Amino acid sequence: MTSTFEYETWLIETGDIIIRKEAQNGAASLTSYEKLIYCVWVADYGMRNAGDLRTASELYPPFQSEACTLARDLSLQYTLDTFSMSENELCSQYFDRFEGVCNELKNA
C-alpha cells in the first residue's frame, strides 16, 4: 500500500514535470489529465503551506471548478466528489481524502 508520504512525493514530482512542460510549451500542450494533476497540486500546495485553500485560489483561481470539470470528463468519481465539496468542506476533509484522490489519479 502506498503511504501518504509516497503520494506527496509523487504529486510534487509530477506537478513539477507538468509545470515545466507548461513553461516550455504553453498551457495548450497539457492534457486534461495533466491539468487535473496541476489543480490537485495547487490545492495541495495551499493546504500544506498555508493550511487552507486561500493560497491555492491566489495561485490558480479556477483550480477547484476546473478540477471538477476535468475529473468529470475523465470519469474520476472520487476526485470529482472531493473537489465538488464546498471550500470549507474541502479544507476540512482534504487530508482525509488526499490518498484516495492520488490513488485514483495514479491509476487513471
Radius of gyration, whole Å: 13 Å
Q: Strand fraction band?
A: under 5%
Domains counted in the coordinates: how many? Answer: 1
Distance between the termini: 17 Å
Main sheet specs = none
The quaternary structure here is single chain
Low-confidence parts = none
The total count of strands amounts to 0
Order of helices and strands: HHHHHH
DSSP helix count?
6
- Helical amount: over 70%
Average pLDDT figure: 96
Structural class: mainly alpha
The gross shape turns out to be globular
Entry keywords:
single chain, 108 residues, mainly alpha, globular
What does this protein structure show overall?
- Helix content is 79%, strand content 0%.
- With 108 residues, it is an all-alpha fold.
Write a brief structural summary.
This protein is mainly α. The chain has six helices and no strands.
Layout of SSEs?
Elements: H1 4-25, H2 32-50, H3 54-59, H4 63-73, H5 77-83, H6 87-106
Helix pairs in contact: 1-2, 2-4, 2-6, 4-5, 5-6
